[in-house]
Amino acid sequence: MAITMTIHGFGMLAVLRVNFSSKRLLHTKKNMMAGLLPIIFATGLILIVHLFEVLIWGMFFIWKGCFTNGSLSIYFSLNEYTTVGSKYNLPLQWRLLEGMISITGLLSFAWSTGVLFTLAKEFQDHWIDSYKQRRQKKSSE
Predict the structure, then answer these.
(1) What residue ranges do the domains of the chain occupy?
(2) How far apart are CA 25 and CA 33, in angstroms?
(3) Which of 82, 115, 125, 127 shows the smallest number of beta carbons within 10 Å?
(4) Whole-angstrom Cα distance, residue 25 to residue 14?
């Protein structure tokens, strides 16, 4: 769990850094799509971070011999990480990790949601302020 949350922490910092850089590059463009692109890109990066974490869990289970192939191991890890569950189970000595993967997934998704919420709020606040300024400008004319 600690490894997964560490990866997620560095991943979220990277997402915020990339988002800041992309907003700086697109700052000269004043259209809504230029403001929305960094959020869309951040969403894709967050997805990649989550999939990397699932891959780490899957590789751990392959290393410990819990599953016969990588595909099944990653499938199991993805289902547990997203709390969907699956018909497959870990060997008895590793069974507690099934719940731990789900807890890790829930914490990671909550963190990711917080990051996306922050980015979306910045975007919305910017456009609401822009809209208010345009209305004030029109009403003063």
Answers:
(1) 2-135
(2) 13
(3) 125
(4) 16
Question: Residue 92 is inside which H or E element, if any?
Answer: none
70: which residues sit within 8 A by CB, 6+ positions away?
Answer: 58, 59, 62
Q: How many CB atoms lie within 10 A of CB 136?
A: 10
Query: How many H helices and E strands in the chain?
Result: 4, 0
- Distance separating alpha carbons of residues 50 and 68, to the nearest angstrom: 23
Q: What is the pTM of this model?
A: 0.86
Residue 86 DSSP SS3: coil
Per-residue pLDDT of 87-99, as tens digits, reads: 999 999 999 999 9
Q: Quick one: CA dihedral 92, 94, 100, 101, positive or negative?
A: negative
